[in-house]
Design brief:
Layout lengths: L8 H17 L3 H35 L4 H47 L9 H13 L1 H26 L4 H10 L2 H36 L1 H7 L2 H52 L14 H25 L7 H9 L12 H26 L1
Helix pairs in contact: 1-11, 2-3, 2-5, 2-10, 3-4, 3-5, 3-11, 4-7, 4-11, 5-10, 6-9, 7-9, 7-10, 9-10
Amino acid sequence: MPTTNSPDPRVAAQTAAQRWLDARLRAVRGGLFAAVAAGTAATLAYAAFAAALAAIVASWAGAGPVGAGTWVALGLALVARSALSALRDACGARASLSVRAQARGEVLDALQRLGPLRHRSGDDGALATVAVEQVDALDGYVARYWPQRSIAVFVPLLLWALVLPRSWLAALLLLATAPLIPLFMLLVGRGAARASEAQAGALGRLGAQFLDLLRGLPTLRLLGATGRGAARLSAAAEDYRRRMLAVLRLAFLSSAVLELFASIGIALVALYLGLALLGRFDVGHYGLPLRLDTALFVLLLAPECYAPLRQLGADYHARAPMRWPRLRRSMRSARPRRRCERPARRRCRMTRRRRSNSMRSPCVMPTAALR
């Protein structure tokens, strides 16, 4: 007998929630693209800063004097990098504010349309958590994760293109070690996503229990059961604390793994450049002697090549993927239902039959009476 593989409801909910969020992001795509462009331009400014600094340090080591233009370029590059980084944060924050305002407005409008029927979406405490906490959780995705996802693709390739003409072995080391960071980010991030889902559910239950305790406090005082209500609330708070610590533990573990692989990659590049400067390793720089300014420039670019990937790993935990379906369910529950839904079809059919029988009975009774 053929069997059909039914889709996972959790995956289907995530896909639908992602489509819902992408529809809201279309209105702020300009600001998000501006944030990506500013972040990429900040990397170019850092490359100019690294080139000027490497030339200045090499001149101190006896490579020859540098002109005043190098110092001016050093200062301008530093100012430009700071300004572009601030512009990127401002564009992301403005886009996040717009998306969160729209999402919160949709949630509040949906709850207003529901009225007393809002209990179908959950307790009032859980709904308040959705409208406040879980809407604000979108800030991590919109302001940081979405722009950083594109920056983490463009920036390493751009820096790799700058390193390749100077040393193909250093570029190969960067190219070989950089993909390990997002790989382990995904492996560790799965456990963090499950822990974040459990933590979001515990936060909703805690808010619902606190609101129920406040509403029933006069009755609990009359019954002398305030201690029992406080004990239940304390147990819910302790459960939320344990789940929060589990999320933080996984987040710190993921950060430690990313820092480890980034440090290994930088150490390999530094070891190669040091041996090349000492003349112990003459492979990897196209048969030419490796100069000090070139080695310093490549060494300064190596941490910047891993920085976007490390930042992406840090922002990966701030994207709150399991909370979007809760927002979407809160708004979908406000849609008007059809009068004859699938569970009530049989009752609707019985009502129609009764109406048809009642319409026929006045015509049958006189005929029977005449007989």
